[in-house]
Amino acid sequence: MSETAGAPAPETKPWDPLILTVAPNGARKTKADHPALPMTPDDIAACAAACAEAGAAMIHLHVRDRRGGHTLDAETYRAAMAAVRRELGQDIIIQVTSEAVGIYQPEQQMAMVRELRPEAVSLSVREIVPSAERETEAAGFFAWMRDEAVLPQFILYSSDDLHRLDDLIARGIVPPGRHFALFVLGRYTPGQVSEPGDLMPFLNANESAHPWAVCAFGAREAACAATATAFGGHVRVGFENNMLLADGSRAPDNAALVAAAAATAKAVGRPLAGPAAARELLASYGWD
Questions:
Q1: Whole-angstrom distance, CA of residue 39 vs CA of residue 68
Q2: For site-directed labelling of 19, which of 3, 9, 257, 283 has its Cα 20 to 30 A away?
Q3: Is residue 177 assigned to a domain?
Q4: CATH number, domain containing residue 155
Q5: How far is 44 from 52, CA to CA, in rounded Å?
Q6: How do residues 236-252 score in pLDDT, each as one tens digit?
Q7: Which has the closest alpha carbon to 226: 267, 173, 276?
Q8: How many structural domains compose the chain?
Q9: Is the pTM above the cut of 0.90?
Q10: What is the spatial distance between Cα 262 and Cα 278, in angstroms, rounded to a whole number?
Q11: 179 lies in a domain?
């Protein structure tokens, strides 16, 4: 008889509810890529409502200038955020992007966040702290974010970025905490298709046990989302990185991608976080 026969089963740590985020537009695509891609405040608000109904607790928000180009203009953000709030009230978290897209410098990215004071913001470690010379300025910015209770998500493109985040925390540039990370499975390159295995280098490097989410490119987005869901991570889907369903057909809208990720969570027995639960989780993940 096995020595473990009759022994109690090991205790299983319950999963955190899944925070499902939609990234509906990004900085580069237009309605020429898909007619349902939201660009105006009203478009974004209608998309947010449909995606919230499908299971999204957070929207990752990009806004566009009058010519349809990427902008970090605070007033343009306010118009889109007001439209979403009119549609949903507080029933979705609005996370703004600080992405540079080759246009903005770190000081401009940080100035936008300071002016806007959003509930949540995504920050690329590579962009906000591109060099040692930028560390003092970044340290002051991160301390301000902590004091203002702005919820961060650190965008990481490789395991090296994750090690760099840990180094910035260890040296006090980023305030201590188990910070919410976004593992980007691939880059913006023509024909990029992410694979579930792209997640493994991040998991192996995550020695500090930062809570994390994934985003992925191409029709394997659904498989990557399923892998993250099963491994206890969170998920971001949407037209920013992918417009295809798992079978390779074109998704009719962002809500279809959200609904597919929600169905996967249900299939593996992982509950979805509503906006209130997601806010509690993000607050617990953030600044110590």
A1: 7
A2: 9
A3: yes
A4: 3.20.20.70
A5: 12
A6: 999 999 999 999 999 99
A7: 267
A8: 1
A9: yes
A10: 15
A11: yes
